[in-house]
From TrEMBL:
Transmembrane segments: none annotated. InterPro entries: CBD2, CBM2/CBM3_carb-bd_dom_sf, CBM2_carb-bd_dom_sf. GO terms for biological process: carbohydrate metabolic process. Residues 184-305 form the CBM2 domain. One of its GO terms (molecular function) is polysaccharide binding. This is Putative cellulose binding protein.
Length: 320
C-alpha cells in the first residue's frame, strides 16, 4: 500500500457567547480549504468539504453544561489507508469586544471520565489521539465540559453584555505522529509563538477601534530557522502592516496573514538561532481580543510546521 504523507488541517471555530449569565450559542465551522468534514458532531478526516452545525447552550453560576463530539477515520465504506494521528488544540479566550468570564473552566474528557486537559479563564491546550491502521473504521468520542462555579457574586460581576467567552478549536491530522519528539526535548514544542495586543482605542466618536499587536517567534529547537516566515488566520480583527523586523506579504486572502523576515542580511533578524527569538509589531483595526489560529512557521532550511506552542494575551497597557 502506497503511503502518501499529507496534512489535513481543519479549523473548527466554536463561538460560545455568554451574556447576562447565559451561554447563548456556539457555532462550529470548517475552513473551506480543509481536507475533512464535520457532520452532526462527527469530525471525519477524509475528503474535502465544509459543513457547519449550531447548538444553543445556557449556563449560569454554579452550573455545568457539556457537549460531545467524535473524531473518525472513515465515512460510509471508505476507511483511511494509513495510520492516522490527530491533534485538537483548544483556545479559550474573550469573545470579540468583551471580557472573558474568569471563573469559567473548560475541560476535555474521554468517555471514561478521564480528564485529558483543562483551562480556567483563558488559555490554550492540546489533546492528541491516533487511529492505528486497521481494516475497519475507528472513532473516538470526547466530552467538553463547561463549568461556572458560583461564589455568590458571579451573577452580579458578570451580568450584562460586557462579558463573553469564545472557544476556538483547531484540529489537525497527519500520517506522522505529532508526539514524535527527540529524547530529552526542550520544554514545549520546537517553536513557540506569542501573540499580544494592547487595549484598543478609538479616534473620534465614530472612528473604528484600533490597537497595536506584537508577534514573537521562539526557536526551542537545536537547529536555526533561517530566513524565517510565519503565517496564520485572524477572522475579524485586521492587521494592516508591520512596523519593523518583518514584512507583510501583500494581496493575500481576507483573514490570512503571512510575514517574512525583513531581509536585512542580519542573522539576528533574518534567522532565529536555537534558544533565541524574533519579534515584530504593527497597527491593527478591531478590539484586539481575537486569537490567531492555524499558525505555521517555516524557513529556508526547514519545512513549514504546524506543531506550534501558541500563547495569546489581550488588552495589555503596553507591549515591551
Amino acid at each position: 500500500m502506497k503511503r502518501l504523507i499529507f496534512l489535513l488541517t481543519m479549523v473548527l471555530i466554536m463561538l460560545s457567547s455568554i451574556v447576562a449569565g447565559t451561554l447563548a450559542m456556539y457555532t462550529v465551522s470548517i475552513d473551506n480549504l480543509a481536507k475533512g468534514s464535520v457532520i452532526a458532531k462527527e469530525f471525519v478526516f477524509l475528503g474535502e468539504g465544509t459543513d457547519t452545525f449550531q447548538q444553543g447552550l445556557k449556563i449560569s453560576p454554579n452550573e455545568t453544561v457539556d457537549w460531545q463530539f467524535k473524531v473518525k477515520n472513515y465515512k460510509d465504506q471508505i476507511v483511511s489507508e494509513t495510520d492516522m494521528y490527530y491533534k485538537l488544540t483548544f483556545n479559550v479566550q474573550a469573545l470579540t469586544g468583551k471580557k472573558a468570564i474568569d471563573p469559567l473552566t473548560v475541560t476535555v474528557k474521554d468517555l471514561d471520565g478521564n480528564i485529558l486537559n483543562s483551562v480556567t479563564g483563558v488559555g490554550t491546550f492540546d489533546v492528541l489521539g491516533e487511529f492505528p491502521l486497521a481494516v475497519n473504521g475507528q472513532e473516538k468520542e470526547y466530552l467538553v465540559e463547561i463549568n461556572w462555579p458560583g461564589d455568590g457574586n458571579s451573577d452580579i460581576k458578570y451580568a450584562g453584555s460586557k462579558y463573553g467567552t469564545m472557544i476556538n478549536v483547531d484540529a489537525a491530522a497527519s500520517q506522522i505522529p505529532f508526539a514524535s519528539e527527540p529524547e530529552n526535548p526542550p520544554q514545549g514544542n520546537k517553536v513557540s509563538v506569542r501573540y499580544e495586543t494592547t487595549v484598543p482605542w478609538q479616534n473620534g466618536q465614530s472612528g473604528p477601534y484600533q490597537y497595536e499587536y506584537k508577534v514573537t517567534i521562539i526557536n526551542n529547537s537545536t537547529e536555526p530557522i533561517n530566513s524565517w516566515n510565519i503565517a496564520f488566520y485572524l477572522s475579524t480583527d485586521r492587521l494592516t502592516s508591520a512596523w519593523s523586523n518583518a514584512k507583510l506579504e501583500p494581496n493575500l486572502p481576507s483573514g490570512y496573514y503571512k510575514f517574512i523576515n525583513p531581509g536585512y542580511n542580519n542573522p539576528t533578524t533574518d534567522n532565529i538561532l536555537p534558544g533565541q527569538s524574533v519579534s515584530f509589531r504593527g497597527p491593527a483595526v478591531g478590539m484586539g481580543t481575537e486569537a490567531i489560529h492555524t499558525v505555521t512557521v517555516g524557513g529556508s532550511n526547514i519545512s513549514d510546521t504546524t506543531n506550534v506552542d501558541l500563547t495569546c494575551e489581550f488588552g495589555k497597557k503596553s507591549l515591551n
